[in-house]
Amino acid sequence: MSKNNRKVDIVDSLAEITSYQNRDLLEQSLVKTIYELFPSADQRLFSIDQHEDSITIHLISKMGNDNQLSAVHVDYENRQKAALRLMFEKVINSGKAEYFENSDESLFESFYPVLDANNRVFAVLQSTSRVKQLKEEPLFTGILKVYSNYVNLLDKSQKDKLTGLFNRETLDQKILTILREPHKPLKQEALFSSLNKENRNKQSMKTFLAVIDIDHFKSINDRFGHLYGDEILVLVAQFMTKNFTRIDDLVYRYGGEEFVILINVDSNQQAQQAFERLRINIENHEFPQVGQVTVSIGYEEILGQSSSQEVIAAADSALYYAKQTGRNKTEYYQALVEQGVVKPSHIIESEDAILF
């Protein structure tokens, strides 16, 4: 390939990467693009979630010599791969590329960090080949810098400024995607490829949406002021992200003191346990100045509804029942309908209004 042709390929590749506003498709496009530029190396993209006392590493996309790109979503926190994890820790701590020679398999592994606007590592690209790639480092880092800048721009438009959670607009898009393709994991929307065995196993899982409301939040604002109210919102958001750490767990700020969580689990019982665990953890926490804060939760399975509004209306009905019957509880919409204590939600959409 001539230098001019390669330059054109690189420009075209960058144009493709920055054509997606969907974060999942963007991740897959990045891996596909880098593999096409370096077809002799396997490429793997990992997300890095840094918490106060731990680091969670997820394999989210890969492409190798089988020429198949997959959104794989493997949790490396639960795998004992000491050498690999050590390299990740070095990259995360230094913010610079690191290299590892696997003499047993005659492989060379390069690890390239992806930094956010605050110079924190939020992703790592692992490139594995049988030859050293040191001379290619400037090109790798340049492409990843473009990717990072674009992700930062997306975050500004898709995330709530106060809590850092995804906003309401991205929630509506996600629910519609799930309704169109109900058997795919939350973080996976196949763009190019077949799925691996782990993802096929996930197709039997159920997706649940919960609406969470902070109890007596207006009273907190009135008694302690809006600065403390904002602090409570941030702390509750942090509880949610700490309680729901799997790659498929998605947390949104829906508006005001309301939040939404999407999870993939095997059953309603598992969903109930997960949401109850969050409720109890918040209830047992001593919040600065305010003391005890509680939340009410209503949830419903996403399955066969006609719109995102219908899903949210169902969970909201369960939430309303929880608040009307004492607050600080978790209620499942379908169970309430079967008990006859909540009427089924029907949404009539018109050009002017949505009626519940």
Automatic annotation (TrEMBL):
Gene Ontology biological process terms in this record: cell adhesion involved in single-species biofilm formation; negative regulation of bacterial-type flagellum-dependent cell motility
Cofactor(s) essential for the protein: Mg(2+)
GO CC annotation, single: plasma membrane
SMART domains, A to Z: GGDEF
GO molecular function: diguanylate cyclase activity
Domain GGDEF: 205-335
EC class of the enzyme, as a word: transferase
Record EC number: 2.7.7.65
Alphabetical list of Pfam families matching this protein: GGDEF (PF00990)
SUPFAM superfamilies registered for this protein in UniProt: Nucleotide cyclase
Reaction(s) catalysed by this chain's protein: 2 GTP = 3',3'-c-di-GMP + 2 diphosphate
Name of protein: diguanylate cyclase
Source species of the chain: Glaciecola nitratireducens (strain JCM 12485 / KCTC 12276 / FR1064)
